[in-house]
């Protein structure tokens, strides 16, 4: 099958938020769910300088809506990379 090229769909761009506490990370996951934003808890990137080992990841297209919901609820976070 030489010369056969199969284009795989590109993965959607992802955005990551990091936290200083586990409580804030889990709270952010709950806020995302309540706001209807698909997000998942993932390990915090090693070079993120997060004080918590958890991060929240979502599609880049949804990051502004997620950040707005977190700010409205008072959840402390930072976008990584900053």
Description:
This protein is an alpha+beta fold and 82 residues long. The chain has one domain (14-80): Alpha-Beta Plaits (2-Layer Sandwich), CATH 3.30.70. Helix content is 30%, strand content 23%. It has a 4-stranded antiparallel sheet with strand order 2-3-1-4, with helices on one face. The protein is globular. The chain starts with 13 loop residues before the first strand and ends with a strand. The model has no long low-confidence stretch (mean pLDDT 90).
Order of helices and strands: EHEEHE
Tally of helical runs:
2
Alpha-carbon distance between the termini?
Answer: 45 Å
The gross shape turns out to be globular
List keywords for this structure.
Alpha-Beta Plaits, 4 strands, four-stranded antiparallel beta sheet
């Amino acid at each position: 099958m030489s010369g056969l090229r199969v284009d795989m769909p590109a993965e959607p761009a992802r955005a990551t938020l990091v936290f200083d506490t586990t409580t804030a990370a889990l709270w952010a996951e709950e806020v995302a769910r309540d706001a209807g934003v698909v997000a998942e808890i993932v390990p915090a990137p090693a070079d993120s300088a997060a004080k918590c080992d958890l991060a929240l990841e979502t599609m880049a297209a949804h990051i502004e809506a997620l950040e707005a919901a977190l700010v409205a609820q008072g959840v402390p976070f930072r976008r990584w990379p900053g």
